[in-house]
Each structure stands twice: as C-alpha cells, then as structure tokens.
Amino acid sequence: MVRITEQLIRKKSEHNELIIGTLEELSLHQEDIERIEHIGHWCRELKILLLQSNLIPRLENLNRLKKLEYLNVAINNIERIENLEALEALQKLDLTLNFIGELTSVESLRANYNLRELFLTGNPCTDYPGYREYVIIALPQLAHLDGKEITRSDRLLAAKQLPALRERIVQLEALHKIERDEQRVRVQQSIEEQEASVRDLPDDDERRATTFWQQKSEHCPETRIQMAKFSRRAKGQAAAGGKNLDQPDERKRTRRLFAECGRPYSLNEPRVNFEFRDEPDRFELDLHVYKYLDTSLVEVDAQPNYVRVTIKGKVFQLALKQDIQTDRSTCQRSQTTGHMLIVMPKLNPERIVAPAEEKRPSQVNQSQASGGGLKGPVDIRSICGGSSQTKQPRINEDEVPDLI
C-alpha cells in the first residue's frame, strides 16, 4: 500500500521551494495511492489537488481544505460521493472513470454552492435512464455536466420528470448493489484460484504475471488493484536486476576526457555550435551558448594545451595545437546573443614579417640616375608612355581639311 508521506509531498512541491505549508497546487497522480490522508493537515492553502490514476476507494480527510477550488480524482476506485460538504470554495469536481453506482449520492454536493462543473463520465450511474435530468435537478448550482452546458430549457424539462425519475433511479441503484456484491465475490474467487494454480511452480512470479495479463478480467476495483500489484512487481524486478528482460543490456557510456598518454580529447556533449580561429598570436573560441542560460551554470577552465567549458554538467572540451598563456586568457559573454568569446594568447606566438614593397623599374632607374634626388628638367612626355608602347606619328597640319 502506497501512503501519502511528507517526503512524497515535498518531492512534488519543487515549484514552491519544497515548502508545503503555503502550497497551492499539488499533483499526486499515478502514485498507486490507496487512501487520502494528511493532506488536509499539511497543505491547508491548496487550491488545486490532482489525484487521478490512483487506487483511492473513498473520498475522505479533505474537510480542512477550505480554499480548494479544483479536485481531480478521475480513474480511481470510488463507488460513492461523500465527505465533500466542507469544501466551500470547490468549483470543479472530476470523478471520471470511477465505479459510482449510487447516483443519489450526488445530493451530498448541494452544500457546495460554488460548484459549477461536475464530471461523471465513465461511471455506472451514467447508464441509468434519466441520469442527466436527475443530476440537473439535484444540483441547481451546476453550469456544466460532463463538459456540456446546462441550459434553462434543460432545467425545465428535468423538473417535469423529477417525481417518477427518482423512484426509478433508486430501484436501479438497488439492482446495481446486488450485482456489485456478486461481482466482488466472483472476482475474489477467481484471484484465489489463479494464485493456487501457480503457487507450487518454481517460476512463480513470472508464470503468475503471464497468466494474469493473458486472462480475461472484469472491470472492477479489485481488478485495478491486481493490475497495480503486478505492475509494481515487474518494476521491482527490473530495478533489482538492473535491466529490463525485454530489452538488450545497454551500458551507460563513460566519459573520457584524456587518452592514456595524457593527451586531451575534443568532445562536445552539450552539442552547441562554435567557431575556432587560429591567429598568429592567439586562439579565439566563439561558443554559441544558449541565449537564456544563466551564466552561473557555465564553468570555463583554460589549461596550457586545452580549454574546457562545462554547461549544466555537460562538457565541451577542445584540444589546442600549441600551449597558451593561461594567466592572460580572457572570457567574455554577450548580453544580446549569449555567445561566449574565449581569447587565449599563445605562449610562443608566430613572428609576423611584413613583405617588402617592390619598386618600379622606372623609379629605380630614375633614383639611380639622379643619385637619390630629382635634378634637372623632367621629360613629361615619357611619364605616361611605356617602353613597350609605339610612339604615335606626328600629325601634318597641312593635310587637315578646312572647316566649312
């Protein structure tokens, strides 16, 4: 039996910094809980309580939740609506897919004057003739039933059928109780016969589970409890064995940052984009860190032959070809894009040799002839023309015709 403990509630209150006294929303779904307890004493400020997909057979111990507005107990083993009169602020109640056959128990919700939405889909009582009309008359404060709006005409039509309607529903409830008692005895006998048939087998648990999942079963609370029991047993065997028998053994890959000789590896566990530039005097690493990631979750470590950046526990490491000056390395992050720039000066930077400017032959000859300076007249006609160009013949002005 799974109990509601303080540790379980604190685990589900991470969004409230593990404080349960001021908790306003609590989700305990799919925990195989079999009883509602302690919540009313520990979490009196609750406004939303989610208990769907458990094994709860009865509504109880909720009378202290005066601020509760939404209660979800869908897919449980509840057979009767009760003990909710003290929930003054209750506005929405979800009882989908339970085993409520006593439809007249909805009358206990008349004191919940703020109740506006009620869900009873999937319960045996919804198959009764006149089910919707009876609930509409029994709970005049409702605005929606099973997700469908209740109109004024619906209330008028239901009011005309009320006298004969309640008598018929009480008879159907009595028949349902008789069938439920017979079903309870029949299912219990089936479970006992099944356990006796596999009790002496060496592979008891495996054979019992196989037989249970392959046989036909009735839809009832006892079957749900058995299903939860076998599911927990299968999970426990998988946890004890360290693996699932239906799946191959998958070993977790171990992280290796260095080779056996001590050489650092390059790896990118966070799968972030980056740009690496090898300048003559430095290395530049532009790491595209996530824009909205807090800087406190990023750690940078620059060593002589590698740089390592840890992002939320995942390692980005880059091996360097040359040693760097770790004490002069810098790291900056953009407030706009979130990118991180790491500049690492090289320990032995490369020498940059500027190329010598080539002089034109004409300038060399002229400087040699002049002895390094400009002396005498300059022939301006040879400035634009080259030695390879042919000299244009002079034009004879006598051959040019007169203008008309």
Report on the structure:
There is one protein chain. With 404 residues, the chain is of the alpha/beta class. Among the domains are: 6-175, Ribonuclease Inhibitor (Leucine-rich repeat, LRR (right-handed beta-alpha superhelix), Alpha-Beta Horseshoe); 267-345, Immunoglobulin-like. The chain has 8 helices and 15 strands. Strands 1-2-3-4-5-6-7 form a 7-stranded mixed β-sheet, covered by helices on one side. The protein is elongated. It starts with 5 loop residues before the first helix and ends in a 20-residue tail after the last helix. InterPro entries: CS_DNAAF11_C (IPR056496), Leu-rich_rpt (IPR001611), LRR_dom_sf (IPR032675). Belongs to the tilB family. It is found in: Cell projection, Cilium; Cytoplasm.
CATH-assigned fold name of the domain at 6-175 = Leucine-rich repeat, LRR (right-handed beta-alpha superhelix)
CATH homology-level superfamily of the domain at 6-175:
Ribonuclease Inhibitor
Q: Which CATH architecture of the domain at 6-175 would you pick?
A: Alpha-Beta Horseshoe
Strand content: 5-15%
The largest sheet, given as strand count, sense and whether it forms a barrel, is:
7 strands, mixed
Low-confidence stretches: 243-250
Count of alpha/pi helices: 8
Give the helices and strands as they follow along the chain: HEHEEEEHEEHHHEEEEEEEEHH
Radius of gyration: 43 Å
Question: What structural class do helix, strand and pairing data support?
Answer: alpha/beta
Query: How would you sum up the global shape?
Result: elongated
Quick one: how many beta strands?
15
